[in-house]
Amino acid sequence: MKTTRLIGLFLSLLLFPSLAFAEGWEDKIEFSGSLSSDIRFIIENNRGEIDGEGYEFELNRNELKLRLEMFPVENVRGVAETLLRFDGYNNANNLQGLTKRSEIDPYEVQLNEAYLHLRHEYAEVRVGRFAVNWGTADQFNPTDVISPRDFSDSLEYSVKVPNQMIEAKVFPTDFFNFTVIWVPVFKPSQLPPSAVLGFAPVRDPKTGEMLSFPAPPLKDYSRILELQNIAMDNNITLDETAVNTIYPKSKIANSQAAAKAQFQFDDIDFSFSYYYGRFSFPQALTAYAYMNDNGGVNYDVEVMYPRMHMAGFDMSYPLTWLFDIGFRAEAALYFPEEVTFGVLVDPTLYDVEITSHNISGDPIFKATVGLDYTFTAWFYMNAMYVRGFIDEFDDLSGLHNYVVSNIDFKFFEDELQIKLAGVLNVDDLSATLFPQMTWVVVPSVEMIAGTLIFLGDTMPDEPLDYAAKSKFGQKPVGRSIAFLKAKLTF
């Protein structure tokens, strides 16, 4: 029933423009969207659950995005944006499934935005479903914590999960505005499909035999190592790992609030921000290992979303005295809830209970500093230093340091565009490379080809050492792929 309603909403949005035009709404409606086809191929065979799984198509997707903006009266705007996605793979695994089109040709419908925007001479209000973007740095914004991230698509790095909220902004002068936001119900970030490998046992690349339990966030993992050796000596295997999430109850005490004061004087733009809510990426809370009826071990894990306060500052300033280089800086101080991780083992297997701080509760400092410069009409470069990645919360893995670069070349009056982007983890020397080429066939029609490559060790020397994981080398990050995409924008 829920899917039927979503499809009805999507079709209504698709048909509404023609109905509106028929009623004389020609000047009160704007309709836009895109149509795309996306094919991706895995170009390695060592980053799956078991080595040797690779060199196959990962994605065969088609999308139709529709956006509608309505202006019924002056200073009032309504926005709705939907996405219809066809995965391109057959999900039917039995004869009964072959009788259903939804199994043979699976799809999903998303409502990305649906809000009402009211504007006055010195104020404006947005109410409904949307996402918020804060900060001046390019994508790596430590102050941008209101809207959770959507990492379900490795190529769409800046996409967010929308949520229902109220945003009010006042701008009494040209150089100052003040924004407050209230989010009634918490919503977590969407993780990539590969995230489940973060809690999977380490297995032999050839045989699939378990070599190690999933690494728990413990500084002293010697007792877990003893448990693992006992299990191995008695031919006891890890049969199942279940990860359960603990969400905050939908009470007003668990709602989120944020405020931002923004200033602009001549060429300098800066702001101070505050947020109270929760970190949108899960943090480990408990682990319980117990014997099952088959003589193996089940491993149940609980994760939660810790509370936090965030105080932030960001600024942008063109260095006119230095070749007009763009300068951007952003910093955030997080005050997190303390999280104590606990391990409990079935006494019939190995009587042990261990606790350790996963999140200490000490303040966390994140920052981004970047420079960008347009050398000519066809050459642009952006370089940044990043302290603390988006999903890092100073747990046992700590905060890492990164260098981010992006170089754009444009040729033939921008018809051919080449982008070379990458991120290097300075601490463990793992990296991600993202080169791509875009051909603008005709205005509004693009063909895009490229690769996304992850570099680094897939397994640390000691698998139980939680802090030794390579940031971009570990398998939960995802697969290295080559992709080809065609897109029409209207």
List the SSEs and their pairings.
Blueprint: H1 2-22, E1 29-42, E2 57-70, E3 76-86, H2 101-104, E4 107-119, E5 123-130, E6 163-173, E7 176-183, E8 202-203, E9 210-212, H3 222-233, E10 238-246, E11 256-265, E12 268-278, E13 283-291, E14 297-304, E15 307-319, E16 325-336, E17 339-345, E18 352-359, E19 364-376, E20 379-387, E21 401-411, E22 416-425, E23 431-442, E24 445-455, E25 481-489
Parallel strand pairs: 10-14, 13-17
Antiparallel strand pairs: 1-2, 1-25, 2-3, 3-4, 4-5, 5-6, 6-7, 7-11, 8-9, 11-12, 12-15, 13-14, 15-16, 16-19, 17-18, 19-20, 20-21, 21-22, 22-23, 23-24, 24-25
Q: How would you sum up this structure in a few lines?
A:
Helices cover 8% and strands 50% of the residues.
Global structural class: mainly beta
Oligomeric state: single chain
- What string gives the helices and strands in order? HEEEHEEEEEEHEEEEEEEEEEEEEEEE
Number of helices: 3
Q: How many distinct beta strands?
A: 25
Helical residue percent? under 10%
Q: Report the mean per-residue pLDDT as an integer.
A: 90
CA-based shape: globular
Tell me the fraction of residues in β-strands, as a range.
over 45%
Largest sheet: 18 strands, antiparallel, barrel
Instruction: Detail the poorly predicted runs.
Output: none
Cα separation of the termini: 31 Å
Describe the structure.
The protein has helices at residues 2-22, 101-104, 222-233; strands at residues 29-42, 57-70, 76-86, 107-119, 123-130, 163-173, 176-183, 202-203, 210-212, 238-246, 256-265, 268-278, 283-291, 297-304, 307-319, 325-336, 339-345, 352-359, 364-376, 379-387, 401-411, 416-425, 431-442, 445-455, 481-489. It has 3 helices and 25 strands. With 490 residues, it is mainly beta. The strands form 3 sheets. The protein has an 18-stranded antiparallel β-barrel. β6 and β7 (176-183) form a beta hairpin.
